[in-house]
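[scheduler] slot 2 assigned
[scheduler] job type: sequence-to-structure, two independent chains
[scheduler] chain ordering preserved from manifest
[runner] begin chain α
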Amino acid sequence: MAVKPILLAAGVGERLRPFTNVLPKCLMPINGVPLLEYWLASMRQLNIDDVLVNVHYRSTDVIDFLSRPRFLNWITYTEESHLLGTAGTIRANKDFIGDSSCFLVHSDNWCCCDFQSFLDYHRFNRPINTSITMMTFTSENPQSSGIIESDERGVVIRFHEKVKKPPGNKANAAVYLVEPEVIEWINENKNVTDFSTEVIPAFIGKIATWHNYSIHRDIGTIDSLLKAQLDNKPSLPWPDKDEWQISFDAHNIHRMIGDAKIAKQIS
Protein backbone atom coordinates (compact mmCIF):
# COMPACT_ATOMS: atom_id res chain seq x y z
CA MET A 1 0.00 0.00 0.00
CA ALA A 2 1.52 3.30 -1.09
CA VAL A 3 1.08 6.15 1.39
CA LYS A 4 1.16 9.88 0.64
CA PRO A 5 1.35 12.09 3.74
CA ILE A 6 -0.18 15.55 3.90
CA LEU A 7 1.01 17.46 6.96
CA LEU A 8 -1.37 20.30 7.77
CA ALA A 9 0.73 23.21 9.01
CA ALA A 10 -1.20 26.29 7.90
CA GLY A 11 -3.07 27.22 11.08
CA VAL A 12 -2.78 30.50 12.98
CA GLY A 13 -2.86 29.27 16.59
CA GLU A 14 -4.93 32.05 18.15
CA ARG A 15 -4.94 30.44 21.62
CA LEU A 16 -1.13 30.37 21.61
CA ARG A 17 -0.69 34.13 21.35
CA PRO A 18 1.63 35.89 22.06
CA PHE A 19 3.87 32.95 21.09
CA THR A 20 2.34 32.73 17.62
CA ASN A 21 2.96 36.44 17.08
CA VAL A 22 6.62 35.54 16.55
CA LEU A 23 6.46 31.96 15.23
CA PRO A 24 3.80 29.76 13.60
CA LYS A 25 2.17 27.07 15.72
CA CYS A 26 3.76 24.22 13.75
CA LEU A 27 7.25 25.50 14.63
CA MET A 28 6.68 25.75 18.38
CA PRO A 29 9.68 24.09 20.05
CA ILE A 30 9.36 20.90 22.07
CA ASN A 31 12.61 20.56 24.03
CA GLY A 32 14.28 22.88 21.54
CA VAL A 33 13.12 21.16 18.34
CA PRO A 34 10.24 22.46 16.17
CA LEU A 35 7.06 20.41 16.39
CA LEU A 36 6.92 19.97 12.60
CA GLU A 37 10.44 18.53 12.60
CA TYR A 38 9.33 15.64 14.81
CA TRP A 39 6.57 14.84 12.31
CA LEU A 40 8.98 14.92 9.38
CA ALA A 41 11.41 12.72 11.32
CA SER A 42 8.60 10.21 11.88
CA MET A 43 7.87 10.14 8.14
CA ARG A 44 11.56 9.58 7.39
CA GLN A 45 11.78 6.75 9.92
CA LEU A 46 8.86 5.10 8.10
CA ASN A 47 10.93 5.29 4.86
CA ILE A 48 8.38 7.66 3.33
CA ASP A 49 10.14 9.83 0.77
CA ASP A 50 7.36 12.03 -0.64
CA VAL A 51 5.65 14.37 1.82
CA LEU A 52 3.46 17.44 1.24
CA VAL A 53 3.16 20.28 3.77
CA ASN A 54 0.59 23.05 3.42
CA VAL A 55 1.52 26.52 4.68
CA HIS A 56 -0.33 29.79 5.20
CA TYR A 57 0.20 31.71 8.45
CA ARG A 58 3.75 33.09 8.68
CA SER A 59 4.46 30.99 5.61
CA THR A 60 7.92 32.50 5.11
CA ASP A 61 9.02 31.05 8.45
CA VAL A 62 7.76 27.59 7.54
CA ILE A 63 9.20 27.68 4.01
CA ASP A 64 12.58 28.74 5.41
CA PHE A 65 12.41 25.78 7.81
CA LEU A 66 11.48 23.37 4.99
CA SER A 67 14.30 24.65 2.77
CA ARG A 68 16.98 23.04 4.94
CA PRO A 69 19.26 20.52 3.16
CA ARG A 70 17.90 17.60 5.20
CA PHE A 71 14.47 18.12 3.63
CA LEU A 72 15.55 18.56 0.01
CA ASN A 73 14.05 16.24 -2.64
CA TRP A 74 11.46 14.61 -0.40
CA ILE A 75 9.46 17.46 1.13
CA THR A 76 7.17 19.64 -0.99
CA TYR A 77 5.15 22.57 0.29
CA THR A 78 1.99 24.17 -1.04
CA GLU A 79 1.15 27.72 -0.01
CA GLU A 80 -2.51 28.60 0.53
CA SER A 81 -3.34 32.28 0.00
CA HIS A 82 -6.41 31.67 2.16
CA LEU A 83 -7.15 28.70 4.38
CA LEU A 84 -8.88 25.95 2.41
CA GLY A 85 -9.89 23.83 5.39
CA THR A 86 -8.64 20.29 5.94
CA ALA A 87 -10.89 18.73 3.32
CA GLY A 88 -10.25 21.64 0.98
CA THR A 89 -6.51 21.00 1.18
CA ILE A 90 -7.07 17.35 0.31
CA ARG A 91 -9.20 18.33 -2.69
CA ALA A 92 -6.63 20.85 -3.91
CA ASN A 93 -3.89 18.20 -3.74
CA LYS A 94 -5.73 15.13 -5.02
CA ASP A 95 -3.18 14.74 -7.82
CA PHE A 96 -0.40 14.44 -5.23
CA ILE A 97 -2.34 11.67 -3.46
CA GLY A 98 -3.26 9.87 -6.69
CA ASP A 99 -4.53 6.36 -5.98
CA SER A 100 -2.50 6.04 -2.75
CA SER A 101 -3.73 6.05 0.81
CA CYS A 102 -3.46 9.52 2.35
CA PHE A 103 -1.67 9.88 5.69
CA LEU A 104 -3.46 13.01 6.93
CA VAL A 105 -1.85 14.74 9.90
CA HIS A 106 -2.70 17.86 11.88
CA SER A 107 0.94 18.60 12.52
CA ASP A 108 0.28 21.13 15.26
CA ASN A 109 -0.32 18.12 17.52
CA TRP A 110 2.49 16.65 19.62
CA CYS A 111 2.35 12.93 18.97
CA CYS A 112 4.75 10.12 19.88
CA CYS A 113 3.78 6.53 19.16
CA ASP A 114 4.59 3.49 17.04
CA PHE A 115 3.57 4.87 13.66
CA GLN A 116 4.56 1.63 11.94
CA SER A 117 1.96 -0.20 14.03
CA PHE A 118 -0.60 2.43 13.03
CA LEU A 119 0.19 1.85 9.36
CA ASP A 120 0.18 -1.92 9.74
CA TYR A 121 -3.18 -1.88 11.49
CA HIS A 122 -4.70 0.09 8.63
CA ARG A 123 -3.10 -2.12 6.00
CA PHE A 124 -3.75 -5.54 7.49
CA ASN A 125 -6.07 -5.48 10.48
CA ARG A 126 -8.71 -2.78 10.19
CA PRO A 127 -12.30 -4.08 10.12
CA ILE A 128 -13.79 -4.92 6.74
CA ASN A 129 -15.72 -2.15 4.96
CA THR A 130 -13.83 0.66 6.70
CA SER A 131 -12.07 3.28 4.60
CA ILE A 132 -10.55 5.53 7.28
CA THR A 133 -8.40 4.66 10.28
CA MET A 134 -8.54 7.35 12.96
CA MET A 135 -5.88 7.54 15.63
CA THR A 136 -7.45 8.06 19.06
CA PHE A 137 -6.08 9.03 22.47
CA THR A 138 -7.32 9.48 26.01
CA SER A 139 -8.14 13.16 26.41
CA GLU A 140 -7.46 15.07 29.63
CA ASN A 141 -10.02 17.67 28.50
CA PRO A 142 -12.79 15.80 26.65
CA GLN A 143 -15.00 18.90 26.47
CA SER A 144 -12.46 20.47 24.13
CA SER A 145 -11.92 17.33 22.04
CA GLY A 146 -13.79 15.35 19.42
CA ILE A 147 -15.01 12.35 21.42
CA ILE A 148 -15.83 9.08 19.68
CA GLU A 149 -18.03 6.13 20.55
CA SER A 150 -17.16 2.83 18.91
CA ASP A 151 -18.58 -0.67 18.60
CA GLU A 152 -16.92 -3.92 19.67
CA ARG A 153 -14.74 -3.84 16.54
CA GLY A 154 -13.47 -0.34 17.28
CA VAL A 155 -15.52 1.19 14.45
CA VAL A 156 -16.83 4.70 15.09
CA ILE A 157 -20.60 4.72 15.58
CA ARG A 158 -20.99 8.23 17.05
CA PHE A 159 -18.85 11.36 17.06
CA HIS A 160 -19.20 14.35 19.39
CA GLU A 161 -17.17 17.41 18.42
CA LYS A 162 -16.37 19.56 21.48
CA VAL A 163 -19.61 19.13 23.44
CA LYS A 164 -20.21 20.21 27.07
CA LYS A 165 -21.04 16.73 28.36
CA PRO A 166 -19.10 14.20 26.25
CA PRO A 167 -19.88 10.50 26.74
CA GLY A 168 -16.29 9.54 27.53
CA ASN A 169 -12.69 10.60 26.94
CA LYS A 170 -11.64 8.56 23.89
CA ALA A 171 -10.78 11.34 21.48
CA ASN A 172 -9.98 11.92 17.84
CA ALA A 173 -6.23 12.57 17.55
CA ALA A 174 -6.63 14.24 14.13
CA VAL A 175 -4.23 11.74 12.55
CA TYR A 176 -5.76 9.55 9.84
CA LEU A 177 -5.10 7.03 7.12
CA VAL A 178 -7.60 7.64 4.36
CA GLU A 179 -8.48 5.43 1.41
CA PRO A 180 -9.03 6.70 -2.17
CA GLU A 181 -12.84 6.34 -1.98
CA VAL A 182 -12.87 9.04 0.70
CA ILE A 183 -10.65 11.31 -1.37
CA GLU A 184 -13.03 10.81 -4.30
CA TRP A 185 -16.03 11.66 -2.10
CA ILE A 186 -14.32 14.88 -0.97
CA ASN A 187 -13.51 15.76 -4.56
CA GLU A 188 -17.12 15.23 -5.63
CA ASN A 189 -18.57 17.25 -2.74
CA LYS A 190 -17.06 20.64 -3.53
CA ASN A 191 -18.83 22.40 -0.65
CA VAL A 192 -17.13 20.21 1.97
CA THR A 193 -14.14 21.94 3.60
CA ASP A 194 -13.65 20.42 7.06
CA PHE A 195 -12.61 16.84 7.75
CA SER A 196 -13.75 16.61 11.38
CA THR A 197 -17.17 18.21 11.08
CA GLU A 198 -18.14 17.14 7.56
CA VAL A 199 -16.16 14.11 6.36
CA ILE A 200 -16.23 12.12 9.60
CA PRO A 201 -20.03 12.36 10.04
CA ALA A 202 -20.48 11.21 6.43
CA PHE A 203 -18.39 8.08 7.05
CA ILE A 204 -19.72 7.00 10.45
CA GLY A 205 -19.68 3.20 10.46
CA LYS A 206 -16.72 3.16 8.05
CA ILE A 207 -14.05 4.57 10.37
CA ALA A 208 -11.70 2.19 12.18
CA THR A 209 -9.79 3.33 15.27
CA TRP A 210 -6.24 2.75 16.52
CA HIS A 211 -5.48 3.94 20.04
CA ASN A 212 -2.28 5.81 20.88
CA TYR A 213 -1.27 4.74 24.39
CA SER A 214 1.85 6.90 24.30
CA ILE A 215 1.99 10.70 24.01
CA HIS A 216 -0.57 12.88 22.27
CA ARG A 217 -1.20 16.54 23.00
CA ASP A 218 -3.03 19.24 21.09
CA ILE A 219 -0.48 22.06 21.26
CA GLY A 220 -3.30 24.60 21.11
CA THR A 221 -2.77 26.38 24.41
CA ILE A 222 0.19 27.72 26.32
CA ASP A 223 -0.50 25.27 29.15
CA SER A 224 -0.39 22.32 26.76
CA LEU A 225 2.83 23.57 25.18
CA LEU A 226 4.45 23.88 28.60
CA LYS A 227 3.39 20.34 29.55
CA ALA A 228 4.94 19.04 26.33
CA GLN A 229 8.34 20.36 27.42
CA LEU A 230 8.31 17.73 30.19
CA ASP A 231 7.71 14.80 27.82
CA ASN A 232 10.50 12.53 26.67
CA LYS A 233 12.17 13.73 23.49
CA PRO A 234 12.21 11.11 20.71
CA SER A 235 15.38 10.55 18.73
CA LEU A 236 15.85 12.24 15.38
CA PRO A 237 17.36 10.62 12.27
CA TRP A 238 19.66 13.62 11.76
CA PRO A 239 21.57 14.22 15.03
CA ASP A 240 23.82 17.02 13.81
CA LYS A 241 22.72 20.64 14.10
CA ASP A 242 22.56 22.58 10.85
CA GLU A 243 22.70 26.35 10.33
CA TRP A 244 18.93 26.71 10.62
CA GLN A 245 18.85 24.93 14.00
CA ILE A 246 21.75 26.99 15.33
CA SER A 247 19.87 30.16 14.38
CA PHE A 248 16.65 28.76 15.86
CA ASP A 249 18.42 28.08 19.16
CA ALA A 250 18.83 31.86 19.52
CA HIS A 251 15.16 32.64 18.74
CA ASN A 252 13.24 34.68 21.30
CA ILE A 253 10.55 31.98 21.52
CA HIS A 254 12.71 29.95 23.92
CA ARG A 255 12.93 32.85 26.38
CA MET A 256 9.17 33.42 26.09
CA ILE A 257 8.47 29.77 26.92
CA GLY A 258 10.94 29.90 29.82
CA ASP A 259 9.25 33.02 31.21
CA ALA A 260 5.85 31.33 30.91
CA LYS A 261 7.17 28.31 32.84
CA ILE A 262 8.37 30.57 35.66
CA ALA A 263 5.09 32.50 35.74
CA LYS A 264 3.14 29.24 35.95
CA GLN A 265 5.29 28.00 38.85
CA ILE A 266 4.81 31.29 40.73
CA SER A 267 1.04 31.26 40.24
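[runner] end chain α
[runner] begin chain β
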Amino acid sequence: MQLYECVFIIRQDLSSSQVETITNEFCAIITDNKGSVVKQEYWGLKTMAYKIKKNRKGHYIMLNFEADAATVAEFDRRMGLHEDILRVLIIAIDAVDPEPSIMMQNKTERSSSDAADASAA
Protein backbone atom coordinates (compact mmCIF):
# COMPACT_ATOMS: atom_id res chain seq x y z
CA MET A 1 0.00 0.00 0.00
CA GLN A 2 1.06 3.56 -0.76
CA LEU A 3 1.43 6.43 1.71
CA TYR A 4 -0.59 9.58 1.04
CA GLU A 5 -0.87 13.07 2.48
CA CYS A 6 -4.20 14.85 2.30
CA VAL A 7 -4.87 18.47 3.22
CA PHE A 8 -8.46 19.66 3.12
CA ILE A 9 -10.33 22.82 4.05
CA ILE A 10 -13.70 22.81 5.83
CA ARG A 11 -16.13 25.76 5.90
CA GLN A 12 -15.50 28.46 8.51
CA ASP A 13 -18.99 28.48 10.03
CA LEU A 14 -18.72 24.97 11.51
CA SER A 15 -17.79 24.40 15.15
CA SER A 16 -14.71 22.49 16.27
CA SER A 17 -16.83 19.47 17.21
CA GLN A 18 -18.41 19.41 13.74
CA VAL A 19 -14.96 19.63 12.14
CA GLU A 20 -13.79 16.73 14.32
CA THR A 21 -16.87 14.69 13.33
CA ILE A 22 -16.19 15.25 9.62
CA THR A 23 -12.52 14.36 10.07
CA ASN A 24 -13.42 11.14 11.91
CA GLU A 25 -15.94 10.31 9.19
CA PHE A 26 -13.21 10.45 6.54
CA CYS A 27 -10.74 8.56 8.73
CA ALA A 28 -13.40 5.83 8.99
CA ILE A 29 -13.59 5.62 5.19
CA ILE A 30 -9.88 4.83 5.12
CA THR A 31 -9.94 2.29 7.96
CA ASP A 32 -13.11 0.57 6.67
CA ASN A 33 -11.32 -0.09 3.37
CA LYS A 34 -8.29 -1.77 5.00
CA GLY A 35 -6.19 1.40 5.15
CA SER A 36 -4.68 3.10 8.18
CA VAL A 37 -4.41 6.71 9.31
CA VAL A 38 -0.79 7.32 10.32
CA LYS A 39 -0.96 10.98 11.37
CA GLN A 40 -3.69 13.58 11.81
CA GLU A 41 -3.26 17.31 12.44
CA TYR A 42 -5.72 20.18 12.87
CA TRP A 43 -4.02 23.35 11.67
CA GLY A 44 -6.79 25.66 12.86
CA LEU A 45 -9.03 28.31 11.36
CA LYS A 46 -6.91 30.20 8.83
CA THR A 47 -7.55 33.09 6.46
CA MET A 48 -7.33 32.12 2.79
CA ALA A 49 -5.74 34.23 0.07
CA TYR A 50 -9.06 34.45 -1.80
CA LYS A 51 -12.68 33.47 -1.28
CA ILE A 52 -13.69 29.90 -2.02
CA LYS A 53 -17.45 29.34 -2.27
CA LYS A 54 -18.01 32.68 -0.47
CA ASN A 55 -15.74 31.71 2.45
CA ARG A 56 -12.79 33.87 3.47
CA LYS A 57 -11.56 31.49 6.20
CA GLY A 58 -11.47 27.73 6.64
CA HIS A 59 -10.54 24.94 9.04
CA TYR A 60 -7.39 23.21 7.73
CA ILE A 61 -6.84 19.49 8.40
CA MET A 62 -3.94 17.29 7.34
CA LEU A 63 -4.07 13.49 7.23
CA ASN A 64 -1.24 11.07 6.48
CA PHE A 65 -2.59 7.65 5.63
CA GLU A 66 -1.72 4.36 4.02
CA ALA A 67 -4.21 2.91 1.53
CA ASP A 68 -4.60 1.31 -1.87
CA ALA A 69 -5.64 3.18 -5.02
CA ALA A 70 -9.31 2.14 -4.86
CA THR A 71 -9.62 3.47 -1.30
CA VAL A 72 -8.04 6.79 -2.28
CA ALA A 73 -10.41 7.09 -5.24
CA GLU A 74 -13.43 6.50 -2.98
CA PHE A 75 -12.02 8.90 -0.36
CA ASP A 76 -11.55 11.61 -3.00
CA ARG A 77 -15.02 11.00 -4.47
CA ARG A 78 -16.71 11.39 -1.08
CA MET A 79 -14.63 14.48 -0.29
CA GLY A 80 -15.87 16.06 -3.52
CA LEU A 81 -19.49 15.26 -2.68
CA HIS A 82 -19.37 16.61 0.88
CA GLU A 83 -20.94 20.07 1.01
CA ASP A 84 -18.82 21.33 3.93
CA ILE A 85 -15.45 20.64 2.28
CA LEU A 86 -14.11 23.53 0.21
CA ARG A 87 -10.84 22.13 -1.19
CA VAL A 88 -8.90 18.85 -1.14
CA LEU A 89 -5.32 18.01 -2.08
CA ILE A 90 -4.10 14.40 -2.00
CA ILE A 91 -0.50 13.53 -2.88
CA ALA A 92 1.53 10.33 -2.71
CA ILE A 93 4.53 10.49 -0.37
CA ASP A 94 7.54 8.28 0.31
CA ALA A 95 7.61 8.51 4.11
CA VAL A 96 5.72 10.15 6.95
CA ASP A 97 7.64 12.60 9.12
CA PRO A 98 6.92 11.65 12.76
CA GLU A 99 7.49 15.23 13.96
CA PRO A 100 4.71 17.85 13.84
CA SER A 101 4.46 19.60 10.49
CA ILE A 102 5.75 23.13 9.98
CA MET A 103 2.18 24.43 10.25
CA MET A 104 1.88 23.07 13.80
CA GLN A 105 4.94 24.92 15.05
CA ASN A 106 4.30 28.39 16.40
CA LYS A 107 5.81 31.39 14.68
CA THR A 108 8.76 31.83 17.06
CA GLU A 109 9.84 28.20 16.64
CA ARG A 110 9.66 28.55 12.86
CA SER A 111 11.73 31.76 12.78
CA SER A 112 14.38 30.30 15.10
CA SER A 113 14.67 27.12 13.01
CA ASP A 114 14.91 29.22 9.83
CA ALA A 115 17.72 31.25 11.40
CA ALA A 116 19.53 28.05 12.43
CA ASP A 117 19.17 26.68 8.89
CA ALA A 118 20.55 29.91 7.42
CA SER A 119 23.56 29.91 9.73
CA ALA A 120 24.30 26.25 8.94
CA ALA A 121 24.34 26.93 5.19
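[runner] end chain β
[qc] chain β: The CA atoms of residues 75 and 81 lie 10 Å apart.
[scheduler] slot 2 released
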